[in-house]
Each structure stands twice: as C-alpha cells, then as structure tokens.
Amino acid sequence: MAPHPPRSHERGVLRFRLPPAFPESFRRSTLFSRRVEGFMGKRERFRLSVSVFAVLRREDQVLLIRRANTGWLDGLFSVPAGAMDGDEPAALAVIREASEEASVSIDPDNIRLAHTLHCRTEGDEWLGLFFEVFAWDGTPKIGEPDKHSDLTWAPISALPNDLVPYVRQALTCISSDIAYSAYGW
Question: What are the pLDDT digits (tens) for 17-45?
C-alpha cells in the first residue's frame, strides 16, 4: 500500500502535497489548500431537540413535581425538567432546571447521566437526558408555582399512577441500570 501524501494542519486549513516523485514545477502548481468545512462539504444534518431531567434522589425515593397550567400533561407528576436553551452544556441545563423548578442548588460534581431516552410524542422526536442528583443545597420546594401545583417524594420502586409515562419508563430503567431506551416508536 502506497503511503499517503504528507499533511499539515494550520489553523483549520488542510494542506495536501503530492509525493516527491512528481516534478517540482508540477508539485508547486498543484499544491492546494481548502478550509476544513469546504473540504468536508456542508450538508444539512438531522437535528433533535433535547430536554434534561433532574432525578433528585433521597435514598430510595425520587422528587416529583405535579405539572399545572403548562399545556403539556398537566395534572401528572414528573421530575424537574425542561428543554435546553442552547449555548449551555446539558449538565448546566439540568442544574438550571432544578434550580428554577425545585429551588435547589447543585454542584456539577454531584450529577451523573443515568439514562438517555429517545422519544416520540405527538409526532415530534426528541432526546431526554436524565441526570441523577444525590446531593444539593437547599430544601426542595416549588420554584415555579405558575407551572407546578405539588411536590412530593415517592419510592422509585412504587411510583404513582399519575406520572408522565416516559418519565416512568426512564425512572424504571434507571433503577435497573439501563442506560438507553426508546419511547413512543
């Protein structure tokens, strides 16, 4: 197998050189460089929205909040959650959501990605990232009373019937150490 031509990387530019067997005049005339994105080509990529879920754990219990006045599954329990706003890592998004919805402060060292849910609801496809949280500052309380009507702790092994179905699936998977599942397909 013939060796590949030497390459050099200079600030996002790939430079390709022909092997020395070609005459110098030809090598100079065919030396080229392209920006990496030009070389790779631009293509439209499939995009998913991402939601983050804070699974606050107290021994064998999980914190649940009842949704209200949101227009999405109102009356059912969920965990503190929300869509990523963009321009933030998922770990910081889940910390932000837990702060907004449950009035707790979480150190990034105290979270762990526990489950990824590939979900289809009402024709929309999205990813849910469920982070377990075992330590936080503050006492959990409803931080957005216009969006939540109740807060409770429930055993993860005996979740209430009025729980968002895909949250139930994710919590069941977390308790069984299952890292990935799909819902609604």
Answer: 445 555 555 444 444 333 444 555 678 88
Give the torsion sign (CA, 31, 32, 33, 37): negative
Residue 2 in domain:
no
Residue 76's closest CA among 67, 84, 85?
67
| Count of domains for the chain | 2
Q: CA–CA separation, 42 vs 60, rounded Å?
A: 48
Angstrom distance (rounded) from CA 164 to CA 96 = 21
pTM, to two decimals: 0.77
Q: Say how far apart CA 2 and CA 167 lie, in whole Å.
A: 54
- Tell me: do 113 and 175 sit in the same domain: yes
What lies within 8 Å, CB to CB, of 94 at 6+ separation is 52, 53, 54, 106, 111, 129, 131, 133
